[in-house]
Specification:
68% helix; mainly alpha; transmembrane; 14 helices; membrane; two-stranded antiparallel sheet; disordered N terminus; Post-GPI attachment to proteins factor 3; GPI-anchor biosynthesis; Per1-like; single chain; elongated
Length: 292
């Protein structure tokens, strides 16, 4: 039976499930915003941002007229400018009080360069991309009849467009092909299908169940560690037959050493170099060595 509920202006009759749904909707619309880090939650930052927006963001045309073209191109809004300026005022206030550097909205404070908020990471990522262009030169040198040709040139390039985890699994698949050979198509296809299913399940969980950064990092680390053990074992077994395997071993040892930068975290040096950007910088020579 429906129950009677009184509102301010009228009485309503609702079934219990309708009452529950209405309560959920009310609570959902009542939530305004989530502030994620100590810096942006601080009174200094919130007060500074409030007055900045009140004083500077009422006239959009005036703001655009004094904004550099590259910041306008990269879609920096007046509110973004207020957040950026107030971030540094908050950092100064924390430093004067002898407190540790805070994060803002889940990120460390970075010096902006020509509208780019993390210039070091962007630069090193571009250099990484240039390094991987070597694969096109690699394709010209290797006959298409080579067993591992399609593994490296097709799957690796295409899967890397989706996310970093796909590249980790692709490397695991390449390890399987290298160890077991590519003649048995049934075995290779079975391994490929298993990894694709695992990949889709992982992405589905992050996208539709829970975006859990810790879980994602643990899965990537576990697969990366398995990659390292497998490739190092293969290098050890083939060290006398194929002398160049030291390059392969160096790459995987280097990757896992650099992984400590991704797992650890610290305020950016000179407000530019943080752990993530240094990871990108360190992988540039490893990419070149891998293709060698």
């Amino acid at each position: 039976m429906p129950q009677r509920y009184w509102c301010k202006y009228f009485d309503v009759y609702l079934f219990p499930w309708q009452h529950t749904l209405s309560l959920i909707l009310i609570l959902t619309f009542a939530v305004d915003q989530t502030l994620g880090s100590y810096g942006d939650r601080s009174y200094i930052f919130q007060r500074c941002k409030y007055y900045c927006i009140q004083n500077n963001c009422s006239d959009a045309e005036a703001f655009r007229s004094r904004q550099p073209w590259y910041e306008e191109t990269l879609r920096w809004s007046c509110e973004d400018e207020c957040k950026y300026g107030c971030m540094w005022k908050t950092v100064d206030a924390f430093s004067k009080d002898g407190m540790s550097i805070p994060q803002f909205h889940g990120k460390w404070p970075f010096t902006r360069l020509f509208g780019v908020q993390e210039p070091a990471s962007v630069l090193f990522s571009i250099l990484n991309g240039i390094c991987h262009l070597r694969i096109f030169e690699y394709r010209k040198l290797i006959p298409s009849s080579t067993p591992m040709y399609r593994v490296w040139t097709f799957i690796a390039i295409m899967m890397d467009y989706f996310c970093a985890f796909s590249l980790v699994l692709c490397n695991l698949f390449a390890l399987f092909c290298r160890v077991c050979g590519t003649r048995d198509r049934t075995k290779i296809s079975g391994m490929g299908v298993a990894l694709v299913i695992f990949y889709l399940q992982h992405i589905y969980y992050l996208a539709f169940v829970k975006f859990d950064y810790g879980y994602n990092m643990k899965v990537n680390v576990a697969c990366g560690f398995l990659n390292m053990i497998g490739w190092l074992y293969w290098c050890f077994v083939n060290r006398k037959i194929q002398p160049y395997v030291w390059k392969c071993a160096t790459v995987f040892i280097g990757l896992n050493v650099l992984l400590s930068l991704e797992l650890g975290d610290f305020p950016p040096l000179f407000w530019v170099l943080d752990a993530h950007s240094m990871w990108h910088a360190g992988t540039i020579p490893l990419g070149y060595l891998w293709y060698r």
